[in-house]
Amino acid sequence: MKVTKAVIPAAGFGTRFLPATKAMPKEMLPIVDKPTIQYIVDEAIASGIEDILIIIGRGKEPIVDYYDRSPELEAHLKKKGQLDILEKIKNLSYLANIHYIRQNEPLGLGHAIYCAKSFVGQEPFAVLLGDDIIKSKVPAIRQLMDIAAQTSSSVIGIQEVPESEVNKYGIIDPMDNKGNVWRVKDVVEKPTAAEAPSRLAIIGRYVINPSIFHYLEGITAGAGGEIQLTDALSAQCRMEPLYACQFEGKRYDAGDKLGFLKATVEFALESPKIGEKFAKYLDQLYLQRNKDIS
């Protein structure tokens, strides 16, 4: 099956970054010189996605503005002769067909996905969560799309997590596997370590058949009092095949302060413009810190 549409939920409050996110969407927090959401959009486009729906909420208008034209800024950059930056700014508006819909209430990821029903129609679609930035040779969502094309089934991205962290994730109950792909028996949202059927956690990437909307209609609020996508996937996998792909790549939890800082540091070190100078600064800082401690 061919996947050309993607959904990016971006309606959350960003409470882990308060007070910074009181007036700025967490998706617009910059990692070096790009907002977090651009890394997600770039991954979708690099995977062959043509239409992207961003689910926004109240106060998320800066995301819409970011991907819109800014004639005043473009004129200013042109006047200053900053043509390389001007080209980057103008290209943002033409990266893909980007659409928006507002989730009126933050009722959970499952509800956010249900808001995309009319956009998706009867096509399989990708879901990319903005908190998960994944650095890989082959885009993570592309890896899932390839498995979905082979199986004509929904596919979820997974990675193994420590036992102490299974209560933070949706966890799969795996059946047989071929390499890095498992058939899924069930999925459980944020189980205790004792209840977890495995340590294989769902990590922010999905390719989902449109039948998911039928299952979303039939579930009630689950963990945290929210409509959980995991519960709908659990219902779906009882009626049709569901697979999980342990994708290749390094994942950063950009919704967590430490994860966000790790991504910032590592992406900065790879920057051709500032990487070398930043590395020297970190070396000096490390030496100075050790000297102060001793």
Element layout with pairings:
Layout: E1 5-10, E2 30-31, E3 34-35, H1 36-46, E4 51-56, H2 61-66, H3 71-80, H4 83-91, E5 97-102, H5 109-114, H6 117-120, E6 125-128, E7 132-135, H7 140-151, E8 154-160, E9 170-178, E10 181-189, E11 200-208, H8 212-217, H9 229-239, E12 242-246, E13 250-253, H10 257-269, H11 275-293
Helix pairs in contact: 3-4
What can you tell me about this protein's structure?
- With 294 residues, the protein is α/β, with parallel strands linked by helices.
- The chain has 11 helices and 13 strands.
- The protein has helices spanning 36-46, 61-66, 71-80, 83-91, 109-114, 117-120, 140-151, 212-217, 229-239, 257-269, 275-293, and strands at 5-10, 30-31, 34-35, 51-56, 97-102, 125-128, 132-135, 154-160, 170-178, 181-189, 200-208, 242-246, 250-253.
- It has a 9-stranded mixed sheet with strand order 5-4-1-6-11-8-12-10-9.
- A hairpin with a 2-residue loop joins β2 (30-31) and β3.
- The chain is globular.
- The protein starts with a strand and ends with a helix.
